[in-house]
Fold this sequence. Notes:
- By secondary structure, the chain is of the alpha/beta class.
- It folds into 3 domains: 8-73, Winged helix-like DNA-binding domain superfamily/Winged helix DNA-binding domain (Arc Repressor Mutant, subunit A, Orthogonal Bundle); 75-164 and 269-295, D-Maltodextrin-Binding Protein, domain 2, CATH 3.40.190.10; 168-265, 3-Layer(aba) Sandwich (D-Maltodextrin-Binding Protein, domain 2), CATH 3.40.190.
- The protein has helices spanning 8-20, 23-29, 34-48, 64-91, 107-120, 133-141, 203-214, 228-236, 281-295; strands spanning 53-56, 59-62, 98-103, 126-131, 147-150, 159-174, 194-197, 220-224, 242-244, 257-274.
- Helix 7 links the parallel strand 7 (194-197) and strand 8.
- Helix 2 (23-29) crosses helix 3.
Amino acid sequence: MRGRIVNLENLRYFQLLYYHRSFSAAAEAVPMTKQGLRKSIHSLESQLKTKLYLGTQEGIKITESGERLYQFFNEVDPAYRCLVSDLVRIDSDNSLAVSLGFSFGTFSIFQKPITDYIDTNLEPSIVTTSLPEKILVRELEAGLFDLAVTWGKSDSPYLEYHHIAEISFYVVLNKNNPLSSKSEFLLYDLKEESLISLGSFHKLHNLLEDACLQAGFTPRFRYCTCELPVIQTYLDQNAGVGFSLPPDLRFFSHDTLVTAPLLDFKLPIGISYRKGHNLIPSETEIIDILSDALLSQ
């Protein structure tokens, strides 16, 4: 491109920024620091000599060049990660490497056990990637991942699913909200509330929307963002009701905010893999580690 070699990892980071429209959320999905992600995106822009995004009051806006780059990388990214997986397998005697995918939102739940396992075990080698669940399922079907942590069982006829547990989902709201005195919630309690969601590309948004419809009302999603500082700002302004996974509750421990569990909405989480795929010992071990980590919480 324009006589320059482009770093594919920087393209990968741009893809995450495109999905999240937020540096904070995209950096968490890698994971890396927000400053590091900004540096990588700016390096990519410098290499390509073009502007890929604009910062606006509403958030990140992708430029025409950014849209074209995103389309291009969607074509080359699967082949790139397949190559990386193959190389890791070669370096690990073809049998001990595990390519592990995480649906957006799941990595924070398992970050510590996965990090601890990698730090204390030379084998198996683990390559981790976070993706929107629709893309993750598609690439799991294509063999680009060995295992994937997903929000429940997918509709794919080509995948097996190992259910681990159902985890709690929490309501987060300003203390000035009339509902703030409640110690627990049902979905229907939020019927008249403006809701702060993660966006339609996120499986959690889809699960929450479906659950609200089953509870008898259409949710009023007012804001959609994955950027925690933006969500905190909306909550501080009492502009809506937000939601949180258990590992993220620490971000909302403010004097102005309260949290409470949703009693009739639990999130299914488990491990998916291709039908007919014979799990090798290292994959079974990883499934057991993830299961034990979640069930012990």
